[in-house]
Design a protein that fits this description.
Distance between the termini: 7 Å
CATH architecture: 2-Layer Sandwich
Structural class: alpha+beta
Number of helices: 2
Largest sheet: 2 strands, antiparallel
Order of helices and strands: EHEEHE
CATH class: Alpha Beta
Strand content: 15-25%
Length: 57
């Protein structure tokens, strides 16, 4: 399951996109994950200061 972003919590800071090793995250009004590119590594989860991102196992 790819990373999931809580759009109501996301502040679009861009930290998740900066640390994503496969460029699976884009940021405009909120962050969006490209499910086909996401490798579920969790780097974005660790980076998010608002805990708006989760990866289900």
């Amino acid at each position: 399951m790819p990373a999931k972003i809580d759009e109501e919590t996301c502040s679009a800071c861009g930290g998740c996109a900066e640390v994503c090793p496969v460029d699976a995250i884009s940021v405009e009004d909120v962050a969006k994950v490209d499910a086909e590119l996401c490798t579920e590594c969790g780097a974005c989860v660790e980076e998010c200061p608002l805990e708006a991102i989760s990866v289900e196992e």
